[in-house]
Amino acid sequence: MSTGGPPDGSPDEVRSAPPDGGAVDGPGGDVERLRRVAVATLEANWEHDHTVPSRTLYPHQWSWDSAFMAIGWAHLRPEYAWRELESLFRAQWADGRVPHIVFNPRLPVGAYFPGPEFWASERAEAAPTIATSGLVQPPVHALAAWLAYRRAPSDPARAALRRLYPRLVAQQRYLATRRDVGGAGLACVVHPWESGLDNSPAWDAPMAAVAADEAVMRAYRRHDTAHAPAAHRPTDLDYARYVTIVASYRDGGYRDAELARRHPFLVECPLFNAAAGAAEHALAAIAPLVDADPGPHRERAARITEALVRRLYDPATGTFQPRDLRTGRLVPARTVLGLAPLILPDLPASQVTAVVAEACSARFGVAGRMSRPLPSYDRTAPDFEPLRYWRGPSWMNINWLVRRGLLGHGRADLATGLGRSMAELVATAGCHEYFHPDTGAGLGSAAFGWTAALLLDLLADERAPAPAI
C-alpha cells in the first residue's frame, strides 16, 4: 500500500471509475470492491501530513474535511488519522479558533480563490505563522479523535489524544465565549461557509440583507465553475456576497468583539451547535484517558442541548431551524440542518420523535422510510434544486451524521436503510463530492476525500451495535 502517492492505476482512473457491484448487503453486493475504491481515493488524496478534499477544486486542507478523513484513516492507517488532526491543529489560532482552510505554501498564488493573499491572516493578532483563512467550520474534531481512538486504541494513539486534548478544549472555549454573540449559550456562524452547508437555502434570507460590494465583485475570478457546471454551483451574486462578508470580517482584523455591532451575517446554526454539543460528549469520553475531569464537559454538553432546544427548535414544524440574529427570527427553510441534532445523545425524546418524523417525511425520506439518501433541502419545496450545491443534492457526511444519530437513539431499522442507500451512491457513481438525491448521479468533484473516508467507516460499522459517544 502506498505511503502517500496514488495507488496502482492512474489518478484519473481512481477518480472516475465507479465500482462494480451493489450496495451493502444488496443483491450481488461487493463490499470489498467498494472498500478498494474508497481506499484508492483516500490514498490518492494524501498530501504528506493531511488529506486534500480533492486534487482539483480543493487543493488545500479543510477543517471539518480533515476530521472526517481521520475517521476513515482510523480504519486503514491509524497513524494517518493522528497526523491529519495534528497537522490541522498546528494551524490553530491563539484565541482557539481552528481555521476552516490551512493553505499549502507549496502551491502557487492563484491556485485557489479566495487564497491566502485575500484572507491576509498574517495581519490578525491571534493568527499562526502559517497562512490560513479566518473562519471556522463545524467542530466535529473531538468526535473524530474519539472515534479514531476507539477504532484503534494504542499507546501512540493515547499519546496523540493527550497532545490534542488541550487544543480541542481551546477550540470549544473559543466557540462558547467569543462566538456566543446572542448571549444565549449557542455559537454563532459569521459566514455561510462556517456552517459547512455553504449554499443552503437556509442562508437566503440572512444573505439577502448583505449588500454585495461591486468593487469586490470586479476584483475576483471564480475557480469553482472551471471544475463544475455553473448551474451546479452558487450564483455569481451569492459568491459576491460571500466575498463581501469575508472582506468585512478581515478588515475588522477577525476580531469577534465587534461582531454584534458591525458584521452583516450572524446566525445560530443547528448543525454547528449540535456538533459543538457532540464534541463535549466526546471530550467527556476522552478526559479520563488523559487524566482530566469529564464532569465539566458533560455539564457543557447539557447546556448546549438545552439551548438548542430552547432557541432553535420550532414546535410548529417539528424541526430545528437556524436563528438569524439580525432579525431575531427563525429561518423558515426546511433543510437537512434541522436533522443534525439527532447526533446529540441527550436530545429529549420528544424532539427525537419529531426530527425522525421529519427525516421520514416526503421532504427528506420516502413513504415513512429512509430507503434513499437524504437530500440537503426539502424535496417538496418549489425551489428544490437536485443539481445545485447544497440546495438539493445528497452528501455523504450529512447522511453519515444523521445515520449515527439514528443508531444512537435506537433506530437501527432506519439507519440500516440509510446506510444501504449511502453505499449505493458510491456503487453507482464512485466517490463524488455530492450526488443527485434521486438518481444517484455523481456531482461536483470526483475522488472526494470525505466520501471515501466515511464510506470506509460505514462499511466497517454496518453490522456494529449502536454507537455511544
UniProtKB/TrEMBL annotation:
The family this protein is said to belong to: Belongs to the glycosyl hydrolase 63 family.
InterPro entries assigned to the protein according to its UniProt record, in alphabetical order: 6-hairpin_glycosidase_sf (IPR008928), 6hp_glycosidase-like_sf (IPR012341), Glycoside_hydrolase_63 (IPR004888), MGH1-like_GH (IPR054491)
BP GO terms, sorted: oligosaccharide metabolic process; protein N-linked glycosylation
Mannosylglycerate hydrolase MGH1-like glycoside hydrolase domain span: 58-451
GO molecular function: Glc3Man9GlcNAc2 oligosaccharide glucosidase activity
Highest taxon, organism lineage: Bacteria
Keyword Translocase recorded: no
Species per Swiss-Prot/TrEMBL record: Micromonospora avicenniae
The protein, known as: Mannosylglycerate hydrolase MGH1-like glycoside hydrolase domain-containing protein
The UniProt record lists the keyword Hydrolase: yes
Keyword list, A-Z: Glycosidase, Hydrolase
Region (Disordered): 1-30
SUPFAM superfamilies xrefs: Six-hairpin glycosidases (SSF48208)
